[in-house]
Design a protein that fits this description.
Layout lengths: L1 H6 L14 E5 L14 E4 L6 E7 L2 E6 L13 E3 L6 E3 L5 E2 L5 E3 L8 E7 L2 E5 L1
Antiparallel strand pairs: 1-10, 2-3, 3-4, 4-9, 5-6, 6-7, 7-8, 9-10
Length: 128
């Protein structure tokens, strides 16, 4: 019985390594043109496998880890915005997430790891 549970492939937690995150970006920068509209997004090189920043409204931004909580160590992909621009997806396991980071289709059972955001004078601070 112990051998069977040791080989069980069910994910019992996100398992995403805790890496320090302390980023700041200008939401008006030409580098991030899509962050100028609600529903816009940008990818930044930070976190464990990258961060996706999503503009909910002019004053509300979300920042999520791009490692899929189903298999954070998967080398075959990272979480991206689907071509429809309606949800986030991980191409390897097929998990889908809404723009608030919640699971909408499995196999993932945990939502995306969310980083803290705060906005001051068009600078978005992203931390953990």
């Amino acid at each position: 019985m112990v051998i069977l549970s040791a080989c069980d492939n069910d994910n019992v937690g996100p398992g995403i390594p805790n890496v320090p995150v302390s980023e700041q970006i200008s939401v008006n920068s030409l580098q991030y043109p899509m962050l100028r509209q609600d529903g816009g997004y940008a990818y930044i090189q930070a976190g464990y496998r990258g961060i996706i920043v999503i503009r909910q409204t002019a004053n509300t931004y979300y920042a999520f880890e791009r490692a899929c909580p189903y298999d954070p160590a998967a080398s075959c992909g990272i979480v991206t915005v689907d071509q429809s621009n309606l949800f986030l997806t991980h191409s390897c396991c097929g998990s889908q997430f809404n723009f608030q980071g919640n699971v909408t289709a499995g196999p993932a059972v945990y939502g995306l790891l969310q980083y803290k955001t705060s906005l001051a004078n068009n600078i978005l601070y992203i931390t953990n």
